[in-house]
From TrEMBL:
Start and end residues of each Acyl-CoA dehydrogenase/oxidase C-terminal domain: 237-385
Domain Acyl-CoA oxidase/dehydrogenase middle as annotated: residue spans: 127-224
InterPro entries according to UniProt: Acyl-CoA_Oxase/DH_mid-dom (IPR006091), Acyl-CoA_Oxase/DH_mid-dom_sf (IPR046373), AcylCo_DH-like_C (IPR036250), AcylCo_DH/oxidase_C (IPR009075), AcylCoA_DH/ox_N (IPR013786), AcylCoA_DH/ox_N_sf (IPR037069), AcylCoA_DH/oxidase_NM_dom_sf (IPR009100)
Keywords of this entry: FAD, Flavoprotein, Oxidoreductase
Acyl-CoA dehydrogenase/oxidase N-terminal domain mapped to chain residues: 17-122
Enzyme class: oxidoreductase
Cytoplasm listed as a keyword: no
Protein name: Acyl-CoA dehydrogenase family protein
GO molecular function: oxidoreductase activity
Keyword Ubl conjugation: no
Enzyme Commission designation: 1.-.-.-
Record-linked PANTHER family: ACYL-COA DEHYDROGENASE (PTHR43884), ACYL-COA DEHYDROGENASE FADE28 (PTHR43884:SF20)
Co-factor(s): FAD
Length: 392
């Protein structure tokens, strides 16, 4: 019986392995203690970000003729997972990865060179803004409005839960260019803009979000922010489709980060369970703990297969929406189970910050809610995959 991997699977594994090996050099140079220091000091992990650029890792998924390192979503997903597996997950990679997708796919060559190319070496940071206080998950109900003024646009409105807004140089903003009352279908009248964060009229308000990440969350206010004509990506009013292309990649990047954190936590649990012997033998020999960790590992591996299958579909130009949603759903649930297994294994010591276990829980628990909550993912699967009636 031939048990060797099929050529396609072998190529996928090679793509993933090459990224993971390159990333290992970064996470060894900038380990978990480095990220925790950045978190405590409330500063962006600038040194690590620049190193990712120097290694060419930030350029993954961007074509080489635009200054990137080539590859596709598979490669940048592998990067997100590898960083998290090394204990140094970064939300900024998630927002950068999703923000570049619509620009690369639908921007002009000049826009790609201006907005995407500088992100490949880390000299320019890109974040993403879609969520609004009153719209929440219903992005079509957003109120931010960009109106024409000659060749320019004038943007007004506000966004919330914007990761890394303080540290970004540019921001991909989704806003209405027509009010909901002016369009026939709710997906019409939405547009994508790249906003220079130094533009007058932008105000940031940091939110008191208790998640252990180096990137803080912000409320962003736009007050008569003037945007040049080349800030518009694609066609005005046709930005909804472009937005979802980016959101599918965001879900895969979030899934990858969850997988990495889950395996990182599980590794800590296994090491502790091998060493801890309150009754004379390792607690890892107790089925109550062993089975919990074994199940978490199995669920992580299943979610990993779905995540990379979806990334392959995305790179092949196929509709990856259903698979991306399933991947994020499964990965976030598996990661939570893995971190909770690590907490249970460590017992009371899990809540000692010096053991760095409970510090992992808020981020993986957040991933059941963001970038989109798991209930909405199941709604999508129910309606668009199973063909059930719409539930909301």
């Amino acid at each position: 019986m031939n048990t060797s991997p099929a050529p396609t699977q072998e190529r996928l594994e090679t793509r993933i392995r090459q990224v993971q090996e390159a990333t290992r050099g970064i996470s060894e140079q900038y380990p978990r203690s480095y990220i925790r220091q950045c978190i405590d000091q409330d500063r962006f992990p600038e040194e690590m970000w620049k190193a990712l650029g120097e290694y060419g890792l930030l350029g993954l998924s961007v074509p080489e003729h635009f200054g990137g390192s080539g590859g596709g979503v598979v490669e940048i997903v592998a990067l997100a997972e590898a960083l998290a597996l090394g204990g140094v997950p970064t939300l900024f990679l998630v927002v950068t990865g999703l923000g570049r997708v619509p620009i690369v796919r639908h921007g002009t060559p000049e826009q790609i060179k201006k907005f995407v190319t500088p992100t490949c070496d880390g000299s320019v940071k890109l974040c993403f803004a879609i969520t609004e206080p009153n719209a929440g998950t219903n992005s079509f109900n957003m109120n931010s409005l960009a109106t024409r003024d000659g060749d320019d646009w004038v943007l007004n409105g506000q966004k919330v839960f914007i990761s890394g807004a303080r540290d970004a140089d540019i921001m991909l903003v989704i806003a209405r260019t027509q009010k909901p009352s002016e369009v026939k279908h709710r997906t019409d009248g939405m547009s994508l803009f790249v906003v220079d964060m130094k533009t007058p009229g932008i105000t940031l308000q940091q939110l008191n979000i208790q998640v252990e990440t180096a990137e803080r969350q912000y409320m962003v206010f736009f007050d008569n922010v003037r945007l040049p004509a080349d800030a518009l990506i694609g066609e005005a009013g046709k930005g909804a489709k472009l937005m979802f292309e980016g959101l599918n990649s965001e879900r895969l990047l979030a899934a990858a980060a969850a997988l990495g954190i889950g395996d990182y936590a599980l590794g800590k649990a296994v090491a502790y369970a091998q060493d801890r012997k309150p009754f004379g033998k390792p607690i890892g020999s107790y089925q109550a703990l062993q089975h919990r960790m074994a199940l978490a590992k199995a669920e992580l591996e299943a979610a990993r297969l779905m995540t990379y299958s979806a990334a392959e579909r995305f790179d092949a130009g196929e509709d990856a929406g259903a698979h991306a949603n399933m991947a994020k759903l499964l990965a976030s649930r598996a990661a939570v189970a893995a971190v909770e297994a690590a907490i249970q294994t460590h017992g009371g010591y899990a809540f000692d910050r010096d053991y760095d276990v409970v510090t992992l829980w808020p981020m993986v628990r957040l991933m059941e809610i963001a970038p989109i909550n798991n209930e909405m993912l199941m709604n999508y699967i129910g309606e668009h995959v199973l063909g059930l009636p719409k539930s909301y």
